[in-house]
């Protein structure tokens, strides 16, 4: 199993280019199931989850040409299967994004239930409830969601809580439903907006994405399109934190600063100097980082996917930072590992209390999920001596090789087997 070996204490400077957003690429790929025509996607990040989603599509009958770097052309003329099997779903829960499109166009879907994961229970009841309201018959059997429908019917669906992939699944399903669907309390993430733009380019009628109410008028069919996936705001944020910890000057390029407001605000409040450009943000480490409380929230709030990275920063800030995780119940797996590196962090329910600054020392640590791994790599950058982050496959699910991007900035990081 690959590991990252980080020698801490190096200063970072230079430019880092942000990849396409994993969490926009995955629903974008699932949306290819909605049409028999060819869909071309550009700016796909070179990460494992994207490769997994392409395999899920191939399994369902898609012809995929992903030979061009960061591009894929997908055509699903007819379905070879209506099943997303356990073996694929267990490696990537976002496979559940095929449920809505499959059911809407093919009338049948059998998708393995993803089950819990390291960060929380993560049920998909809200996806299922919505599809049932649109006329689907859904049973849970043998660990699978088995869904059938004639043509789905538009419906008014009010989400009791915000769900990103739930909103995306129902938005996709609704594009082929008969009549109008209104999704209230919808997720407002930029990735939802990106998907809506792609669906519109495919001929769907979608209004209001980016607000909490999305209206979709169903069509009998939609067609092919070309779409460029937006930049990954979480990858961007991760390198901003690296710069805030150890940067002489790190410029994060191609990152859409308008989607990073909550992260930028949090960093500013911690005393991090930022230069915000049209498509880039430059950052350097201040002489002193200041503690600042944090509360994760659905967009436009501070993203839960940037919580572990912020905790790494808070270990180096003067004072006490209280970090509340409101989205996922178990998303503090990185904390125990950071404590082994010398951090002073106490967990109280869904809150982590971080007292800093503490001198971190390199250790062997274990990655448990994607963003926890990123937090540990960041901690390694400022730890004294060598940190070895094990189970880097978690990191590779959602980040283009971090060692390459960090080395280009002057860090000492290598991948070992
Ligand atoms: N929830 C339910 N029932 C549902 C759906 C969600 O109770 O049917 C709960 C969840 O358990 C959670 C909350 O609602 O407590 C929000 O979950 P959400 O559905 O929004 O999460 P998701 O769609 O499964 C996406 C991202 C995650 C990101 C979250 C929150 C993708 C592919 N995944 O997950 O990304 O953390 O939104 O922003 O878009 C990551 O990239 O590392 C990652 C985990």
Protein model, in words:
By secondary structure, the protein is an alpha/beta fold. It is built from 14 helices and 24 strands. The strands form 6 sheets. A 4-stranded mixed sheet has the order 22-23-1-24. The protein has a 4-stranded mixed sheet with strand order 2-15-17-16. Strands 4-5-3-14 form a 4-stranded mixed sheet. β20 and β21 (351-356) form a beta hairpin. Bound molecules: uridine-diphosphate-2(N-acetylglucosaminyl) butyric acid.
What's the topology here?
Elements: E1 3-7, E2 12-17, H1 22-31, E3 38-42, H2 48-60, E4 63-65, E5 72-75, E6 83-84, H3 86-89, H4 99-106, E7 108-112, H5 125-133, E8 137-141, E9 144-148, E10 156-158, H6 164-174, E11 180-184, H7 190-201, E12 205-207, E13 213-217, E14 225-228, H8 233-246, E15 247-253, H9 261-269, E16 274-276, E17 280-283, E18 294-295, H10 307-314, E19 319-324, H11 333-340, E20 344-348, E21 351-356, E22 364-366, H12 370-382, E23 386-390, H13 393-398, H14 402-408, E24 412-416
Parallel strand pairs: 2-15, 3-14, 6-7, 10-11, 18-19, 22-23
Antiparallel strand pairs: 1-23, 1-24, 3-5, 4-5, 7-9, 8-9, 11-13, 12-13, 15-17, 16-17, 19-21, 20-21
Helix pairs in contact: 1-2, 1-7, 4-6, 5-6, 6-7, 8-12, 10-12, 11-12
Bound molecules: uridine-diphosphate-2(N-acetylglucosaminyl) butyric acid.
């Amino acid at each position: 199993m690959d590991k990252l070996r980080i020698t801490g204490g190096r200063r970072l400077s230079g430019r880092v280019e942000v990849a396409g957003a994993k969490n926009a690429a995955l629903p974008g790929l699932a949306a290819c199931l909605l049409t028999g025509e060819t869909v071309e996607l550009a700016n796909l990040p070179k990460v494992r989850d994207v490769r997994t989603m392409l395999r899920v599509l191939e399994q369902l009958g898609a012809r995929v040409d992903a030979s061009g770097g960061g591009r894929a052309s997908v055509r699903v003329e007819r379905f070879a299967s209506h099943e997303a099997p356990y073996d694929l779903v267990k490696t990537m829960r976002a496979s559940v994004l095929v449920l809505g499109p499959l059911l809407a166009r093919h009338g049948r879907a059998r998708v393995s239930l993803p089950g819990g994961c390291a960060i929380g229970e993560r049920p998909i009841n809200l996806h299922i409830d919505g599809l049932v309201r649109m006329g689907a018959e859904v049973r849970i059997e043998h660990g699978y969601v088995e869904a059938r429908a004639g043509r789905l019917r538009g419906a008014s669906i009010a989400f009791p809580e915000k769900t990103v992939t739930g909103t995306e699944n129902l938005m996709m399903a609704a594009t082929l439903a008969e009549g109008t669907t209104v999704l209230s309390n919808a997720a407002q993430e930029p990735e939802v907006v990106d998907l809506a733009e792609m669906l519109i380019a495919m001929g769907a009628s979608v209004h209001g994405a980016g607000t909490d109410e999305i209206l979709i008028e169903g069509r009998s069919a939609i067609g092919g399109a070309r779409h460029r996936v937006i930049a990954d705001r979480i990858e961007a944020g991760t390198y901003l934190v690296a710069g805030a910890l150890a940067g002489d000057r790190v410029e994060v390029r191609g990152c859409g600063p308008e989607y990073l407001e909550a992260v930028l605000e949090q960093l500013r409040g911690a005393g991090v100097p930022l230069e915000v450009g049209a498509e880039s943000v430059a950052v350097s480490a201040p002489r002193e980082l200041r503690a600042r409380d944090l509360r994760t929230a659905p967009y436009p709030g501070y993203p839960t996917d940037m919580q572990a990275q912020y905790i790494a920063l808070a270990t180096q800030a003067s004072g006490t930072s209280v970090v509340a995780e409101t989205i996922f119940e178990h998303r503090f797996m990185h904390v125990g590992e950071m404590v082994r590196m010398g951090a002073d962090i106490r967990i109280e329910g869904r809150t982590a209390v971080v007292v800093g600054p503490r001198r971190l020392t390199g250790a062997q640590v274990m990655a448990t999920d994607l963003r926890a791994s990123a937090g540990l790599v960041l901690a390694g950058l400022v730890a004294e001596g060598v940190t070895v982050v094990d189970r880097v496959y978690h990191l590779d699910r959602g980040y283009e090789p971090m060692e390459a991007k960090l080395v280009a900035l002057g860090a000492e990081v290598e991948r070992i087997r």
